[in-house]
Amino acid sequence: MFYREAGDFKTSYRQDSQTFPIRFDRWRFYAVLALAFGVIPFVINDYWANSVFVPFLIYAIAAIGLNILTGYAGQVSLGTGGFMAVGAYACYKLMTSFPEVSILIHVLLAGGVTAAVGVLFGLPSLRIKGFYLAVATLAAQFFLVWLFNKVPWFYNFSASGQITAPDRTVLGYFVTGAQTSATAKYLVCLVFLVLVALIARNLTRGTVGRKWMAIRDMDIAAEIIGVNPLTTKLTAFAVSSFFIGIAGALFFAVYLGAAEVGEAFGIQKSFLILFMVIIGGLGSIFGSFAGAAFLVLLPVLLKNLLVGTLGWPTDLAAHIELMIVGGLIVVFLIAEPHGLAQLWRLAKEKLRLWPFPH
Amino acid sequence: MPEQLLYAMEVTLNGLMAGVMYSLVALGFVLIFKASGIFNYAQGVLALFAALTLVGLQNGQIPFAHLINAALGTNLHSFGWKLPVLVAIALTALVMVGLAILIEKLVLKHLVNQAPIILFMATIGLAYFLEGLGDVMWGADIKKLDVGLPQGISETVESVTDSIFGYGFFIDNLDIVATVVAVLLVASLTIFSQYSKQGRALRAVADDHQAALSVGISLRFIWVLVWSIAGFVALVAGIMWGTKSGVQFSLSLIALKALPVLMLGGFTSIPGAIVGGLIIGVGEKLFEFSVGPMIGGATENWFAYMLALIFLVFRPQGLFGEKIIERV
After folding, report:
1. Domain for residue B241, yes or no?
2. A336 touches B: beta carbon within 8 Å
3. Whole-model pTM?
4. What domain of life is recorded for the organism (chain B) (predicted)?
């Protein structure tokens, strides 16, 4: 009825190539933005911010980053946790060295530092492919975590080896530290997520994105038609690590407040974000959101159900959660290898024809 | 002989022994990769699961006791008997075969012809599932595994080296047993794959799936077979590692250690898994011994990966892997 291209006349190239060509989609997008910026900040409380919204927003940024590398450019990475740690520690060093500069700039700079590290670890991808590369990125994961553990300069020689975010404000409101309100945490992460999603969406639609996809589909063929594998793979690593670095910086500074590298950015984090990307859908920005939402909500729901309602011990609930997450991944891969994003696409196809399918 | 050199020799020997332990896990990877092209991330968790099951059976634990207690409010713990070691090992081997059949029926069958990366992800999912299942079935506390393997310092080696060099080497008995077992395992696997009918079928499938199908080899049977063998190798690895450091979650992380071993040796080569394991074992022990103290220690966490990474840049298919030929 409402969901179709017909009757939505485009009169300029600009309109013709906009992100949401269908009017209904456009309004839905504005409605979601209005809800996210206009309603949720006023009703959010600490529980919802800390257990659902803030982790969702941050993981969505990381998932978009990994999706660019794995989903669009086809380079499987198991080093996401390590790169998030780079973002976190870069942000920490910047925050403590230059207290007068805004935290927002620090977060962006932390992304930049992570991009540089990402390019460095991306260099072997020119020689190593597929599984071999996936395992090679583990080198980044373990080496970086070890580095941040062993070199005291990174954690400012603190006795505990932890990094703790100092209080910083944006426009007079606290965004890091103990006095931060749920609304401030949520809004900072939301602004970054919206920007990251817009940039990612437009990059993947343009020349860069097409080059990434050409390399993903078959790198030799892509090289023959004139795609430079060196720059293409390295830009994928750079952009992806930039986003992941931002996610890491926010995860540490805004969400956790204090972090210990092995615990917060270990190999489990790498797998978690990889699962988000797979369950959401490889090569889809919407999929990154869907996957992050799914894997953030699932443990919360399970915990409420098993521990809250049934009264089972927490460790048992954690083990059952492992089983369910593992089982779901297998089920998803069998039933829908392209993830939640594919279900969404199918639903939209159906909607276009509804209510006259023939 | 100078003392430093003697220390280095001891470290090298210990590294070789540690390498054998890595090879035991890597072996399972190679078997499955050769026969089905699946990069089985769950191999380490299989070892953990096998070790958990072995301990559970040996002590007569009731499976899922924790879950039943939580759901029904009962207070069950064990059947109150202790099984002899050999019976428990045989039963665990049976469980692993059953698991192989289930994995083939429920997971692999549905994923034929999918991209390798999808299969890899599926085994990660499987790893999570098995880890959760192992914990729910047998409980997550650290368990002691004792199947009567000798442990502690080997006095024979110490006295022999003492009489030759004037300095006794410290070598764990368990490592010596592991080396013997690994040699036996590789020998029997080689004999099996070279001289038995099933072994030939296995090699045929490894060579070319479609050609193997066309001469009447059942792919599904081969997959069950290969996963059973991998399960058995996992059981052996689980016994060795479990005796060494207790049966606990970190056991599943040895799978990650086996990955650089595989990259060095090449994914498709059984000798590669052994040689790769030895190189990694010796390399990381020597590095920790010589450079480690200067840069803060605990280099074993990442050295293997870095070594493999640098090595791969020069030889992308590993030491013994088949040359990668790509066509457009």
Report:
1. yes
2. no
3. 0.87
4. Bacteria
